[in-house]
Amino acid sequence: MDNEQSNDSRVPLRVLSDSGNRRADNTAESGPSALKRLHDEQKTSTGRRFALVRRRARNAGQAVEVDKDDGLHAPARLTTHVANVRRVRMDRKLMLRELVPLSSSGFRQYTAGAMRAYARDLVSGKADTYMLRTEDGRSAMPMCTMYCPTSSGSKRLLAVGDEEGGVSLLDTQYGADSAKSKISHWQAHDNSTFHLQWAPDGTHLVTASGDQSARWWDVRTQQLLNVFDGHTATIKCIAFHSSDPNILATSSRDGSVMIWDVRCNSAVMDDGYRHHRPANRISNANVHPLGTPALRKRRKVVNDARRSVTSVLFMKHREHLLASAGASDGIIKYWDIRQHGSYSSRDAPTPVATSEYGGAGKRPHGIAALTLDESGTRVFAASTDNHIYQYDARFLGTANAAYTAPTYRCSNFYVGIAISPDDRFLLSGSCDRSAYIWGLDATPSAEGPLILQAHSGEVSHVAWCPTDVSQLATCSDDGTLRVWNVDRAVAEKCRRSENVRQHYGVVVTK
Question: Hey, which family's this protein in (predicted)?
Fold first, then answer.
């Protein structure tokens, strides 16, 4: 053994035996000198300590267990080779986040049990509670929110649309009481902003409104660049193409889906802005067969109140496929956008594929929101029968999993859902004034969801930070937007003390 290996043998390592049950401290020295050396090591920088441990474990060829006794705040009983241990900065402190190999999404992942324990430490305090204001100082209820997909460094850019038609841009690395957190605010529409979507480049934002238009903004200057006209009712959803940032789709309460290409079909109008006409249109996208076989042959159109197309989504496994869902039938439909013009003139267009409703209700319920995981293999649909259904994105068919809870309520079409950036969690708003988190690695019926309690009104739209799994945001009818961060120390204080808990939104289990 060389000198470096000889010196390394003095480092206390918890060595796992072959059975994984016995541990032995491999310590070559003891007494005051050993304690002083350990104290000196703890005073070194985090990076140097981790480099030292990695090198020693590599030389010894041993697996180690790192736990809270080492001061690293790791989830209990996770083991790994030290060469895989990394630290990342999370919300003004260093925490050990991942201990196992990288997933396809680029995030390191916990085991299912440890990931659930990690999410239990989400908290939201007074400094994480944002109240939106109009330009004249009136309060504005948040309607929708989305994190910037390209936030770098410590920035956590969050766009929020409000009931007064405004858009606010926040940096959630700062508290709500800090002036630095409020980057900009502008009046985007004359009616409520119901949905917004970041362009893939992270410098442009598209907003949808009750004024029947969608608008493309330069976030840096708040300048209006494009206006999308054509819908005859409130626009409910916006979706960008999975690989072409020039193509987007919108869905509306008028029952149609429109596909836009910012490179064509436009003209500068008298107001000085460039207005676009749709490049393709799917009329009556939410039509479904009704009643007797004779009526199904006639393909009667549902009434106006249930025509709404609530959500659209471009697929990743087939870039020419667009998914839609509506308020009437609980069915997801795939449309081939290459069939230019073939859907626009039909009273009842035929999709290339549909899902099968197998929900818990006696009648089909509508779908409030769709989302797709990062891998593009799973589609999730929030149904107004108080379930979230999971489908195989390649085949649709019947749902292969369902997520719910006795208190979970999705009884309107404002409830939103989101997937964590590592594809391990499903987040949803709820009409019972809470937000819910289910683990996607565990059997849905095996354990209940984590319930985020803080709001005093219905929780509608939700968002998970794509660059930081430890942060998410929730909008509520109580007029607030809350940001949730993983903070183990505060979460443990809340669990121990009812007085502390009164000042924080916390996670509970039932």
Answer: Belongs to the WD repeat cdt2 family.
